[in-house]
Structure formats: C-alpha cells, structure tokens
Amino acid sequence: MLREGEDYELVLSATDPEGREIPQDRVGIDVGTVTAVIRGKNNYLGERTIRYQIKRALTVGDLQDVVYNGLAQVLTPSVEDAQDAAVTLVEGDDYTLTVEGNATDVTAAGVTVTVRGQGAYGGSYVRTYRIAPYAITLKSDDGSWIYDGEEHFVGGVTVVEGEVQGFDTLDAEATGAVTHVRDTREGNNSIRFSSSRWNPKHAGALRRVARAAELPVDVAGNYAVTVLPGTLTILPRAITLTSADASRTFDGTPLVRHEVTTHLSGNQTQPGLVGDDGLAYAFMGTRTSAGVSPNEFVYAFAQGTDSADYEVEKVLGSLRVSPADSVVVHVRGGKGRYTFNGDAQVVSGWVSDAAEIDPEISIVLRDGVVASVSAKEPGRYSMGLSAADFVAQSPNYGKVLVEVEDGELVIERREDGKDGGSDPFAHTGGQDKGRRAREGAAGYAGRGATFRTAASRTSGDDLLPQTGDSQAAAGVSGLLATLGSALAGLGLTLKRRPRQ
Questions:
Q1: Who wins on pLDDT, 454 or 406?
Q2: Is 444 left (phi over 0), alpha (psi -120 to 50) or beta?
Q3: Fewest CB within a 10 Å sphere: which of 109, 164, 175, 347?
Q4: pTM for this entry
Q5: Which CATH class is domain 58-132?
C-alpha cells in the first residue's frame, strides 16, 4: 500500500457552481467541483488529476395509499433542500421524477416514484404507494310467490352503498331461483357481477374497425364488493278439500259418497292442486239409519308431491238419510195346545220380526195391556191382541204399522172322555174371556218372548212361553182365583176335578 507523503502527494482544490474558488477548509464539504491532483514521489513518478462533484442533499416526503377512483392517480412526493427548506426547488432543474407501475388500478406491487437530484442536488430517493379497492355494496331484490309449480326469480341488483367509479360499468345480476316452499331460505338470491372500463387507448375504436376484445378492461379487482343477497320465498298454496254431500231415503243399506273436490281456498273457480301433483283419499264416512253424519275422509299426498307446498283445509260434506214413509212389522201372539187335565192352562207372550226389518224399531204393548190367555176347560181361546194394543216406532220410518196374528190357547178333550164331555171348540166367547183373563194377569206380558215346544203336554208343534216349569206352575196357581172371578161373571163355576 502506498503511503501519502512518502510515495505520493495529494493536492485538493474546489470551485463552487459559479466557478469561484472554495476555501481550502471547505473543500470536500461545500457544494462544488473538487479537483484532486496526485503526484508520485521518490520511487514513484507521474501525475493524475481527478474531478468529482459535491452536491446538495434532498429531503423527499413519503406517499400515502389512495382509494381507487377509476382515474389515474399519480402522486408526487414533497422535495426540499435538506439544508434549507426555504429554498424553492424546481423539477427538471434541481431533480427529476420517475413513476413506475399502474397508477389507476389496484395492483399488488403498487406505484413506485423515484426522485433523483439534478444540478446542485444529488442522490436517488424511492417512494411507493398503493391503490386500495373501492368499497361498494350490492343488494339483490327480494321476491315472494304462492306455490304454483313454476320457477320464480328476480334479477334486479341495486348498489346500496358506494358508486361505480370513473368510466367503469358494473354488470350485476341476481342468480337465485325458487320453485318449492323448501327452496325458501334466507339470502338465496345470490349475485353474480363483473365490472369493466373502456380503455382510453381505444377510445376512438368504435369509429374504426377494431376487435371488441381490445376495448373493455376488467376492473372488478378494483372494488371491494359486499354482497347482500335478497330472499326469494315460496308460500304454501292454501287449498280446500271438500267431501261430497249425499242424501237418500232410508233403505237399510249404508249411504257413502267417495268423492272429494279441491280448489284454491277462497276461490272455488281456481284449481287446488298444481300440475302433476296429486292426492290419495280414504273414506270413513257412512250413514245407514235416518239422520246426518259427516262424510269423513283422510288424505295423503301422492309420490312426487311435496306436502310442504300446500296448506290444507278439510271441509266435510254431509251424508243425510231421511226416514222412509212406513213399514209393516208382524206380531205373533203366543200359542199353546194342551190336553185337558183339570188344571188351568196359560199361554202368554208374543214375538215380532221388527229386529229383522230394522234393529232400531221399538215395539211394546200399550200400558195396561197384557198378552196372555188362561183356561181350564177344553176349547179354543184367543188372547184378543190387535194392532191397537201395540206402540211401534223407529227413527228410520215415518210410521211403523203393526199386523197381528193373535195368540191362542187350545185345550183338547181327553181321549178317555173324562173331561166333562164339553166341546173343546164350543166357547164362542173365548176371545172376550181371554182378554178379561189377561187384563188381570199382568205378570204374563212379554216383549219379544221366545216359545218352545211343550212336549210333555202335546205332540204337535204348538209353542209355549219359554219359562221354567216352576214359574209356569206358580203362574197357574196365581191365575186360578182371577179366573174364578172372571168365569163367575159369565155364569160359570170353576171346580177342581179329581184326577183319575
């Protein structure tokens, strides 16, 4: 390494920008041109002159980020003399500015501004700023429809906060669509959007032949978009299901009507179900007896029909059965056939076919009337029953008419002739006697009694009341006193005949 003073000597001098000599103690400090002369000494020969500049420093301010506005935003920093801020600097004379990057759109790199000193000023200074996205809020429209099987949508989109900047255009559309009630949910009307700007470079291209792809510039990235999707709603379709009415006169068979009509609730002219939607029904309504019953039914939606799409109201029709005009029931009084044995014989009770005709027919004897006949002597005795003795009614008929086959007691003569020789069929007053007898023997009346064959007393098919032998014996004993009084009124005397 060479040593100053032994191997070479260094002589410095300087002049200011106006050419004036700078004092030696300010050489290398003050702004100007410095001249350095190097001369060899001793073992070194030669001389070399070097000149360099001492320039003033600059103070360059920082740059702040900006928000996208659709226009070029070229920012320049403040530039001042580092030693004297009062000095007015002139771009082009004292410094130069260079801008690099996209000063219009949002980019990751941002914009770089370089300041370089010029003339009396030196140094290079780099400053960077970025363009931030512009905030904008989009909202799609809401919509509401009653289910009709059709797809529904609303394409409208509104800018509810912010605005499209500069020469930009915003294309936005709502993409939601709903058909069924189950499609309804909050914010289902989503938004698709894009933004473009006509490139000023091609501003006149529309007046020339130019490719359309060269004209617009995609600037969607310049916006910070908040999306507020609207809600599309499908409301259930209110329908009414009405079962049919039906009516007829009572005939003993069930009245049914398996029919349901559907219509839009509140508007019977509009159909209830939509398109291929369907319902299946099961009917429970039925009416047999006179009166009114609801035409009850249940329903189920057919496969492929969404029950959520409907709000159903059931209206039940009426099944009305009116009473028939009249019906005839037949009454048969009890019958009995005995062989004379000296004891009083009794036949009581009656049967009818009312239950077979209509289970709801009620038939009873009038108060004070009994169905019974008693006698001892051979002969034929009737109960004296007539239709007037019965009260018959049913909700299913306006009138219940009664036809009566009178009850009868027959006492036959004994074959051995030990019965007083009387003619068993000579009792012409038997009917009146029988009525008087039964009027005093109320304990033998019976509704709907069943009769059995008295095999111990007859070999025929005559029927007797189905009572026990002890009960019958007690009844016979109880009637003897009554029969004695009745026969006395007819001029007859009741005598007990000893058994043979």
A1: 406
A2: alpha
A3: 109
A4: 0.60
A5: mainly beta
Tokens of 218: 């995609």
**What is the SS3 assignment for the chain?**
CCCECCCEEEEEEEECCCCCECCHHHCCCCCEEEEEEEEECCCCCCEEEEEEEECECEEECCCCCEECCCCCCCCCCCEEECCCCCCCCCECCCEEEEEECCCCCCCCCCEEEEEEECCCECCEEEEEECEECEEEEEEECCEEEECCCCCECCCCEEEEECCCCCCEEEEEEECCCECCHHHCCCCCECEEEEEEEECHHHCCHHHCCCCHHHCEEECHHHEEEEEECECEEEECEEEEEEECCEEEECCCCCECCCCEEEEECCEEEEECCCCCCCEEEEECCCECCCEEEECCEEEEECCCCCHHHEEEEEECCEEEEECEEEEEEEEEECEEEEECCCCCEEEECEEECHHHHCCCCEEEECCCCCCEEEECCCEEEECCCCHHHEEEECCCEEEEEEEEECCEEEEECCCCCCCCCCCCCCCCCHHHHHHHHHHCCHHHCCCCCCEEECCCCCCCCCEEECCCHHHHHHHHHHHHHHHHHHHHHCCCCCCCCCCC
What's 419-436 look like in SS3? CCCCCCCCCCCHHHHHHH
CA distance 263 to 145: 18
Residues forming a β-bridge with 336: 409
Q: Which two tokens stand for residue 238?
A: 């209110």
User: Which fold, 236-322?
Assistant: Ribosomal Protein L9; domain 2 (3.10.430)
Whether 210 has a pLDDT exceeding 90, the answer reads no
The full set of domain ranges for the chain reads 8-54, 58-132, 134-234, 236-322, 325-489
Query: Rounded CA gap, 249 and 83, in Å?
Result: 123
**Amino acid in position 325:** D
Kindly give, in sequence order, each residue whose CB lies less than 8 Å from that of residue 91, ignoring residues fewer than 6 positions away: 79, 97
Residue 328 · residue 292 · CB < 8 Å = no
Q: Dmax of the chain from CA atoms?
A: 204
Query: pLDDT tens for residues 396-432?
Result: 999 999 999 999 999 999 887 665 544 444 443 344 4
Instruction: Report the C-alpha gap between 279 and 264 in whole angstroms.
Output: 15
Report CA Rg, the chain.
64
Percent of the chain with pLDDT over 90: 67
List the structure tokens of 328: 């005839």
For tokens 């023997």, name the residue: 441
